Amino acid sequence: MPRQEQKVTVDGHRLTLTNLDKTLYPETGTTKGEVLDYFARVAEPFIRHARDRIATRKRWVDGVGTAEEPGQVFFEKDLPDSAPSWIPSRAIRHSTGSKRYPLVNDLATLTYLAQMASLEIHVPQWTVRSGAKDPGTISSDSRHPDRMVFDLDPGPGRGLADCVEVAQLVRELLDGMGLDVFPVTSGSKGVHLYAPLDETATSQEISDVAHELARSLEADHKDLIVSAMKKTLRQNRVLIDWSQNSAAKTTVAPYSLRGRLAPTVAAPRTWPEFDDPTTVEQLRFEEVLDRLDNDGDLLEPLTEATGGSVEAPQEPERDRLEIYRSKRDPKHTSEPIPDRHGTSGRDLSFVIQEHHASSLHWDFRLEHEGVLVSWALPKGPPTDPKHNRLAVQTEDHPLEYADFEGRIPKGQYGAGEVSIWDAGTCEVEKWEDGHEIIAVLHGRKDGGLGGVRRFALFNTGEHGPNKDPEKNWMIHLITGRESKSDQTSKSATGQDGGPRASDIQPMLARIGDLGSVRREAEDWAFEMKWDGIRALATVRAASGDSPGGVVLTSRNGKDMTQTYPELAELADCVDSDCVLDGEIVALGPGSRPDFGRLQRRMGLSRTADVERERRRTPVHLMVFDVLEAGEDSLLRVPYVDRRQRLGGPRVRGREHPCPGSLRGKH
Asked: How many Cβ atoms sit within 10 Å of the Cβ of residue 309?
């Protein structure tokens, strides 16, 4: 790959890094590639102090320029529509409307922002975890900061040494209040001071206290300090800017670069460094990296003092409808706008809607993890396997949208007439977020699909003007009308008349009637609805030097062994070769099967993706039938006898079920 462009995978997300040789700091020759490398190396402490704080950005797309010709800076608050959908974000409602801000909670997001030449990243003193659950629905005065900040800014005639002197005075005052104080040279002209808080006070209350403290220091040091914002009063004084404690204000994040002539950084410092103010200088990014290697994160105690975790806390469940809601006004559209996304069960749905907007297109939506993951198809679903069609991924839609038909008013997002072209249920055979999806759609008899269709969607990763690699997909028609699951399940036989394990397919449920169950209750057996995915496990028992082996096959005949490697322990749980019928499940709260959690694992094939999700979402195999044991076929053996055999020594040489992933029902 040329130096100018590199495709990378960060936290499981694909990113294309471009113009790596572009000079962003002409006076030092610092390139965009070096900026990306810096942010990657400081990601851990940067994220620690920026986590769950909405981020505004200052971008220098063409570099910071020179003293004679400064570069143009773009100030960004909300995320553009072209931003990847996986970026964690929070929509905040302002008087001018709702804006969606990124949360720099992971390296992938930080890398994306750096790729966009966001040299400066600014954050508030409160987090989206503090105060109310959703800051976008409450007044700004109700946000509860977990730290107080003072920005010491030298006016004309004063410099950094004077800011250090004022910092000592602020520290003395806050020490008397029982607050620890942590200094940061701002990377610009002055000093930032942080003090941890317990989140019991509102931003307005903290701002009022900070204002009073600044005025108190100004009264005692009138020749050195000013607390008013008027520029005419700042001559030969240091401004104690207390206003950044306001809920609406932000401060450059610790470890952020600055858009100065040199690549300086908002760098944590020690108080002993401030003993001689004349020796203190702003630090460049190379120096900050060396200090991190030698001393670690000097600001880490601030996180501990505020009750935060040094390690990244458990990521809260992402609200997948934030983008959807931010684009719609419930007062002007009849589209469904629920407060949260839903929960998917085992039976998944799809809908394809004909949408007469500014241009005619078809909205292709598949249910996944409680939402309808959506693509716009300019020419509709493909009708010929030889010709793929463009699919542009759009924001996730609520499950309720599967029933939506009607007119979206003019002036609203997506204005135009919407009608259901086809809808029904779908079977997901493969789901790799951002990469590939294979699904079988069971449409209406009179629907646009004309019955059952099997489609593959795959990300093209195309780049160029007005192209977003995350959103550019193609859709492919794989087969004709029937999916594998629609074919009749038959047990093939070998030369000896017995079944071959590779040919066995699981029994499937069919519609019955409650009356027969009541009349013939003694002839029925009942199994819990495990809410997972059906699997046949062909197990070769471990013995001696042989580790044994396991092959997992889906109800559609798909090999799932690579996707669920932890189930290889089945080979240690049996005393003879066997074929087991069961259900792969992921357990949620209270050890209950949770199909939504299992979807995180379904369809993964790349080793790195599987291992990442395996640590996050382990799976179990709930075994409820044995079809072969040793050399014996049990297909013609009564069900009650098979259940007894399942718990017997020919399958498992233990009195109790094997611990771990093999869980039998007796």
From this structure: 11
Cβ atoms within 10 Å, residue 40: 16
How far apart are the two ends of the chain, measured CA to CA in Å? Answer: 58
Residues 168 and 63 in one domain: yes
Residue type, 75: F
Place of tokens 């092959």: 551
Catalytic residue among 222, 231, 467, 529: 529
Please state, for a pLDDT cut of 90, what percent of the chain lies above it: 53
What range defines the domain where residue 115 resides?
5-305
* Assigned token pair, 614: 């395996």
Q: Which residues contact 456 (CB under 8 A, 6 or more apart)?
A: 436, 437, 438, 475, 476, 478
Do 41 and 173 share a structural domain? yes
If phi > 0 it is left, if psi is from -120 to 50 it is alpha, else beta; for residue 75 that is beta
The two beta strands, 182-185 and 267-268, are antiparallel
Which tens digits make up the pLDDT trace of 246-282?
A: 998 999 999 999 999 999 999 999 999 999 999 999 9
CA 559 to chain centre: 28
Within 10 angstroms of residue 603's Cβ, the number of other Cβ atoms is 21
Mean predicted confidence (pLDDT) in 148-163:
96
Task: Work out the angle at residue 254's Cα, subtended by the Cα atoms of residues 252 and 257, and round it to the nearest 5 degrees.
Answer: 70
Q: What is the mean pLDDT of the chain?
A: 84
* 126 Ramachandran zone, left/alpha/beta (phi>0; psi -120 to 50): beta
DSSP class of residue 518? Answer: H
Each residue of 392-406: pLDDT tens digit?
Answer: 999 999 999 999 999
Q: What is the dihedral of CA 156, 159, 164, 170, to 10 degrees?
A: 0
pLDDT of residue 142: 58
Q: CB neighbours of 160 closer than 8 A, spacing ≥ 6?
A: 154, 185, 189, 190, 191, 277, 280, 281, 282
CA distance 327 to 604: 32
3-state secondary structure of 632: strand
- Whole-angstrom CA distances from 360 to 353, 355, 357, 363 are 11, 6, 6, 10
Backbone φ and ψ for 443, nearest 5 degrees, come out as -85, 175
Q: Check: CB of residue 164 under 8 Å from CB of residue 271.
A: no
212 and 154, same domain (yes or no): yes
In a shared domain, residues 35 and 155: yes
Instruction: Tell me, yes or no, if 529 is annotated catalytic.
Output: yes
- pLDDT tens digits for range 97-135: 678 899 999 999 999 999 999 999 999 999 987 644 444
**What mean pLDDT is predicted for residues 285-297?**
95
* CATH number of the structural domain spanning residue 237: 3.90.920.10
DSSP state of 471: T
Closest Cα to residue 440, out of 471, 397, 481, 491? 481
Matching residue, tokens 């607390």 = 227
Residues 430 and 534 in one domain: no
pLDDT score for 317 = 57
In 10 A of CB 376, how many CB atoms? 18
Q: Number of folded domains in the chain?
A: 3
pLDDT value of residue 435? 85
pLDDT at 508 over 80: no
d(CA 106, CA 349): 32
User: Which of 119-133, 145-159, 208-222 has the weakest average pLDDT?
Assistant: 119-133
Nearest C-alpha neighbor of 357 from the set 319, 407, 399, 314:
407
Q: Sign of dihedral through CA atoms 75, 79, 81, 87?
A: positive
- What is the helix (H) or strand (E) element at residue 109, kind and residue range? helix 107-115
Cα–Cα nearest to 288, from 321, 309, 307, 262: 262
